[in-house]
Amino acid sequence: MENKIIFYQNKDSNVVVNVTYFEDNFWLTQKLTAQLFGVEVPAVNKHLNNIFEENELNKEATISKKEIVQQEGNRQVKRQVEFYNLDAIIAVGYRINSKQATQFRIWATKTLKEYIIKGFVLNDEMLKNGKPFGKDYFNELLERIREIRASERRVFQKLGDIFEQCSADYSKDAEETKLFYKMVQNKLHFAITGNTAAEIVYKRVDRNKDFMGLSTWKNAPNGKIVKSDVVIAKNYLNENEIGDLNLLVSAFLDLAEFQARRNQLINMKDWLDRTNKFLESNSLDVLPNAGAISHEQAVEKAHQEYEHFRIEQDKNYISDLDRELKRLNNK
Fold first, then answer.
1. CB 245 within 8 A of CB 150
2. What is the pLDDT of residue 123?
3. Cα dihedral angle (230, 235, 241, 242), rounded to 10 degrees?
4. For residues 320 and 324, what is the distance between their CA atoms, to the nearest angstrom?
5. Which of 13, 77, 157, 311 has an alpha carbon 20 to 30 Å from 29's alpha carbon atom?
6. pLDDT for 239-254, tens place per residue?
């Protein structure tokens, strides 16, 4: 599939290049790469050879041969042509000495700087225009934003900002505030799973299950499970539950933020009532009480299960160093 993309931006305009798209990557020939950076083909070839010789990139992974039809004199001839993927094109752009390559590096550095400082970089126009290459990444972006937004740290941080702005009796460090957060968290968990956070941990933690019943943990998928992982209810949720919870939390935050923008003072008890109404309006079950399992009971059981699991984990764990040594020995 061929299409035009904005490869980078210089001072005056966007630099557009006609690329071949397949295997979820962009591909250019040496000739098109040379045109992109304003040099001759031998310069591109030299830098590619150096890149492969220095093991900056794996040659087999970055080259694909495709049969193309090209005009040679009065004839149309089929030939096998080597295409180089985006990794190779970018690597060449950082080595070529030309005005165009310099502009590319300026743009790339600016983009990388934005990513390091902000934690994200977006191509707004590409996301607005849908799927020019057959795959729309917009939904993936939304899903990742919801995942970040639904993290406990983010939820409490955002709710704290909202409540500070519009709750008449909000106090950041008060015990009532901490209890309120736990109640909201439990209501949201219950709406999705039928259990409070403590009940999820208590019922699902099991030393005999793979990964103790966890679906994720801080160092997943290859790192060790640590003690702090096993007391987080969200770590036990399956993919569908995570997706539903993230959507629910995002909608709840939108509602809370909308209330804050209207500058209405609401006390903390009213916020709990509004949380219940929000869940009811979405045909979800509302937690009727504090639940059958306390936080302390859940933590105690999780830690007991972990102590048994940890012994087996330590016996069977293969570190990154062990994997690398094994790989080198098998060469």
1. yes
2. 77
3. 160
4. 6
5. 13
6. 999 999 999 988 988 8
pLDDT tens for residues 5-35?
A: 666 666 666 666 777 887 778 888 999 899 8
Closest CA to 253 of 179, 170, 148, 177: 148
This model's pTM is above 0.70: no
Dihedral of alpha carbons 85, 88, 93, 96, sign: negative
Residue 2 predicted with pLDDT over 60: no
- Considering only CA atoms, give the Rg of the chain: 27
* Closest listed residue to residue 241, CA positions, set 289, 193, 304: 193
Half-sphere exposure of 81 (CA within 13 A, CB side): 16
Contact 66, 7 (CB under 8 A): no
